[in-house]
Structures are given as C-alpha cells and as structure tokens.
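Friendly challenge for the regulars: who can give me the structure tokens for this chain first? No prize, just bragging rights.
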Amino acid sequence: MANTPENPVDDRRAVRVEIDRVSKSYNNQRVLDDVSFTIEPGEIFVIMGPSGAGKSTLMRAIVNLEKVDEGEIRINGLDAFKQQTHKLMHTAIVFQAGGLFNSLTVEENLGFYPREHRLYDRKTINEKVAYTLRILNLEGCADKMPSQLSGGMRKRVAIARSLIIEPRLLLFDEPTSELDPVSAANITEVIGTLREEYDMTSIVVSHDRELAASIGERVALMGSGKVVMLDTPQKLAESEDPEVTAFLKPSINCNNPRFRQNLAC
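First reply, four minutes later:
Bragging rights claimed.
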C-alpha cells in the first residue's frame, strides 16, 4: 500500500523526515535560512553546530513547538505543523534538562504520560515500564526520586520515559551536555544501540563532536541558520572547508597574551 499523506502506511515503523526550504526570523534576524534536507527512515541523524547556528530552532520546528516563516516539514508525507501527525508517528523528544517530575519516582515518571492519556491499561503500563527500565539498565532505580540520581542516570530516565510510547521518531536535545566524559560516552552508546530494540528514526541535536563521530550516520553541520555541510562524519572530518574545520578542529589564538605563556606556539 502506498505511503501518502492520506494513507501514512509504511512497511516499517521508522519515519522519513523532509525539511523543505525552511526559514525563520526573530526581530529581523534570520535564524533559519532556506534549510532543506531529508532524513531517511531508521537513520541516526545529527544536527550540530555552534551556539546560535539555528539547530535548536530547527528541532523545535520539527516537533511543532516552533512555527516557521517559510517552507514545509513533512513526516512520512504528513504536515509536521499539525499535532495529529505527531500522534500518528508517536513523536517523542528528550529535552536537554530531562524534564522529569521531581515529586515522582523514576517508575512513576515513566508511567505518567501513558496513564494520564489512557494509552494502555494499568497492567500494560507496568509491563512497559519494567521492560524499558531493564533495557536501559535502570531496574535498581525504579523507586528512587530524580534528586537521588546522577546527571547521567537522569538523562537515561528521560530517554526511558520517551521510549514508553514506542516512538517512530525520537529527538534528542543536547543529550550529553553537562555530563562528565564517562556519562557522556554512556549516553552516546545508549542512543547508538536503541535501534536494536526499537524501529525508529533518531534526530540528535548536539554540539558534541565525539557523539556525532560515534553514532551519526549523517551529520548536518549548521552555521548562521544555513546547512554548511551535510555528509558522513568521516567526510566532514576530511573536509578542508574553513567553516567546517573551524568547528571540528578549533584552535586557540597563540597571540592572545592570556594563553601565550601556557602554550607551545
């Protein structure tokens, strides 16, 4: 059966995301400038770039938290600016801060959304919560409060909560920010292995170069609201484009007296 806007059927759960000539301005400042690319079903796609590049605005537009001035975003052919599309596609997002309810236990956090929206019966919710905690090695944390968890564990709980609805499209907002290197590596590994359990498309918004190189199948490097380069991590690493190398291989100005005495320039 054909996959059309009227009949969004596919032979897999993972979705295709099409971003078509999207532009957005704030107070006459262009934050997204004619952005176009397609994310294939099942792909782990990384959107990265420096602060102010437009990556977070684009992510918010994909999940209908931000309207754009021009262009279209489609998920399996359906308008991403209609909330019904995200209900059909089980879109989920893991926010940078996690967004956990501090007054609820880990187990209660995971079960909150499906319980409030009556997605499943109580027995099914309990089974899904237990399974998801097991997948993310969080079984011993079910009765703990978020305040009792490390930063890395809170990130994993936030991911687990998003997985409860079995998303077809899952977005991660700066998943390794504010984490120590060991916790960041753990979260990177979790994101990279989720497809073994869930057939879904993953979009990771990050400035973490190591994360992009480790799990990104393709990376869109953004700068000043535009896509500077879109390719595999290897191709980006090999690029000699000044804007690409400035982000991937930053250097300290040896002429700056604040650093000169500590650098072998």
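The chain has a mean pLDDT of 89. The chain is about 35% helix and 25% strand. Your move, everyone else.
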